[in-house]
Specification:
Rossmann fold, 2 domains, 7-stranded antiparallel beta sheet
C-alpha cells in the first residue's frame, strides 16, 4: 500500500495539463533586509516556477547562498535562514526546469569566482545554442557541474579575458542566442540583461533608495516598490553606487515579447505594455465573443486560466457567467491516507463540477489554450457526467501547432494536438459539441494592434505561426537533449 501511495503522489506531482511557465528572477541593490525582500519578491513570482528556489547575497566582502527544493514560503520563511544571507545586495530565482534535470545542483542563482571577482547569475529563459556552446567549452577544458544552460553563461563570463565584469558579461551575451532575462550580482553592483528581441520579461523598479529588477511588476507590489519601466530589449542595466547606467551593445531591434506572457504566464495583476495581464485576457475573451455565433445558457471558465477571458466573453455578449468548475487549490499537500482507494487521478484532484449550476444547461466552456487535449477531454466528460445538456468549447488563443525553444516547456510537435488533427478531429477527441479557437487576427486586435505585421511581427507568436525570431542552433525538437551530464541526477546532488 505504501508503494501504491507513493506512486499516486508521484503521478499527482507530475500532473500539469498546461504549458508550463519558465522561471522567475528578482534582484535588489543597497537595501536593508535584502534577503527578506528578495524572498517576498520570489513569493510573488511563485507561479513562474515551483521546483526550487534560491537566493545569493553580498555583504561587501563575501557572498552567501541558499538553494532549496520546493516553494519559497516553505524554505525562506524563517529568520534564522534569512540571517545567513547577509548583505544589502541580493538576487533570487524560482525554478521551473525547461533544460536540465530537477536536481539541487541545477537550482539557481549560480555563483562563480572570476579573475574580476565573484558573480551570481539568475536566468529566466532558454538558450537556443547552449549545447553547441557547451560542447565547445568542454573541448577547451571547461568543467561543468550542472546540466542547466545557465551555467554556460557563467562559464562564458568567467572565460572572458576582459578585465571589468561588465565587459565580461558583454563578451558572454554576444555569444549566446535565445530568449533570456538575466539578473546578476557582483561586488556592490546589480545587473539586468534582456535578450535582443525582449522575448522574456524584465522590469525595473525602485524602493526608497534601492533599485529592483524582477520578472513581473507583481514582485514590486509585494514589497511596496514603484515601477519605473521595462528593461528594453537588448539592454543591459548596470546599477552601481546608487546610479543606473543603460548599455545597449546590440544593433537595434524591434521588440517581440512572448505572446504567452499575455495569454497565460504572467500573474493577472502584473502590468504588460501599460495594461494588466487581466485586462489583456479579458480583451482576448471579447475578441473571441466577436467571432462567436452561438448562444448558450451560461459561460463557464476553466479555472483559473480561463477566468478573465470567460468574463470578457460573457460581458460582451450579455451572457451569464458562472463558476461551473470548482478548483481545489490545495492539491499537492499531504492528503492521501493509506486507507483510501483512489481510482482516478489528475483532473478530479484539481477540479470538480458544480452540479447545481451546470445541470441541464447549454454551456460555453472557455480556456486560455489547448495543448494535448487530454485535460479538456476529462473536463468536458466531467461536465456531461454532472448533467450538462451541451458543452461547446472556445479557446482564447489560436491553435498551438509549434513547440517553443525560448524557455517554455511545450511538448514536441508530435504531441501538440492541433499540429496533428483538424478542428473537427480535435472536437471529437475532447468530446465537445463544437470547438472554436480565437483567430490570429483576433489575438492581435486583443493586444491593441490593427493587425499582425507579417514582415516583422509585434509578438513572438511561433506557437501558432512557426515564425521563430531566433532560429535554434542546437538539434532540438524530437532530438532535444536535456541530460548534459554523466552524473546521476538523484535528489542529493
Amino acid at each position: 500500500m505504501k508503494k501504491h501511495i507513493e506512486n499516486l503522489k508521484k503521478k499527482l506531482k507530475n500532473f500539469n495539463p498546461k504549458i508550463k511557465e519558465e522561471c522567475g528572477v528578482f534582484g535588489i541593490s543597497n537595501a536593508k533586509d535584502a534577503s527578506a525582500l528578495t524572498a517576498l519578491g520570489l513569493h510573488a513570482l511563485q507561479h513562474r516556477g515551483q521546483e526550487g528556489c534560491g537566493i545569493v547575497t553580498f555583504d561587501g566582502n563575501h557572498y552567501f547562498s541558499e538553494k532549496r527544493f520546493g516553494l519559497v514560503g516553505d524554505n525562506f520563511n524563517k529568520e534564522k535562514v534569512l540571517k545567513k544571507l547577509k548583505g544589502n545586495y541580493a538576487i533570487g530565482h524560482n525554478r521551473y526546469s525547461t533544460t536540465g534535470d530537477n536536481t539541487l545542483r541545477n537550482i539557481q542563482p549560480f555563483f562563480a569566482d572570476t579573475n574580476a571577482g565573484g558573480i551570481g547569475v539568475a536566468h529566466n529563459g532558454n538558450l537556443t545554442n547552449s549545447i553547441f556552446l557547451r560542447k565547445k567549452l568542454v573541448e577547451e577544458g571547461a568543467i561543468f557541474y550542472t546540466t542547466s544552460d545557465t551555467e554556460t553563461i557563467v562559464q562564458l563570463i568567467a572565460k572572458s579575458k576582459r578585465k571589468k565584469t561588465i565587459d565580461k558579461i558583454i563578451d558572454a551575451i554576444f555569444q549566446i542566442q535565445g530568449g533570456y532575462a538575466l539578473v546578476m550580482l557582483t561586488q556592490n553592483s546589480l545587473i539586468g540583461v534582456r535578450d535582443p528581441y525582449g522575448i522574456r520579461p524584465l522590469i525595473l523598479g525602485k524602493l526608497n533608495n534601492s533599485y529592483v529588477l524582477a520578472s513581473e511588476t507583481c514582485a514590486l507590489d509585494i514589497i511596496g516598490a514603484k515601477f519605473i519601466r521595462e528593461v528594453e530589449n537588448g539592454e543591459i542595466i548596470l546599477i552601481e553606487n546608487g546610479k543606473i547606467v543603460s548599455i545597449k551593445p546590440f544593433p537595434p531591434q524591434k521588440i517581440r515579447p512572448c505572446v504567452f506572457e499575455y495569454i497565460y504566464f504572467s500573474r493577472p495583476d502584473s502590468i504588460l505594455n501599460n495594461k494588466s495581464a487581466y485586462e489583456h485576457r479579458k480583451n482576448l475573451g471579447i475578441e473571441l465573443a466577436k467571432e462567436n455565433n452561438l448562444k448558450a445558457d451560461i459561460v463557464v471558465p476553466v479555472p483559473d486560466s480561463g477566468n478573465a477571458a470567460a468574463l470578457g466573453f460573457a460581458q460582451h455578449l450579455g451572457m451569464k457567467f458562472e463558476l461551473g468548475l470548482i478548483r481545489n487549490h490545495y492539491v499537492g499537500r499531504t492528503f492521501i491516507e493509506p486507507s483510501q482507494k483512489i481510482r482516478s487521478l489528475g483532473v478530479k484532484l484539481k477540479l470538480n463540477a458544480n452540479q447545481s449550476t451546470i445541470k441541464g444547461k447549454k454551456i460555453i466552456l472557455i480556456d486560455d489554450s489547448l495543448v494535448r487535449g487530454t485535460t479538456s477531454h476529462k473536463i468536458i466528460k466531467m461536465l456531461y457526467d454532472a448533467g450538462a445538456k451541451e458543452v461547446h468549447m472556445k479557446i482564447a488563443c489560436p491553435e498551438i501547432r509549434f513547440p517553443d525553444f525560448y524557455g517554455v516547456d511545450t511538448p514536441t510537435k508530435k504531441e501538440l494536438l492541433a499540429a496533428n488533427k483538424s478542428n473537427d478531429e480535435i472536437c471529437k477527441y475532447i468530446g465537445a459539441k463544437s470547438l472554436n479557437f480565437l483567430t490570429l487576427s483576433g489575438l492581435y486586435k486583443a493586444m491593441g494592434f490593427d493587425k499582425r505585421n507579417d514582415n516583422y511581427p509585434q509578438l513572438t507568436d511561433h506557437y501558432f505561426t512557426g515564425d521563430y525570431p531566433v532560429k535554434p542552433v542546437d538539434e532540438l525538437g524530437d532530438n532535444k537533449v536535456t541530460q548534459l551530464s554523466l552524473l546521476n541526477t538523484g535528489y542529493n546532488n
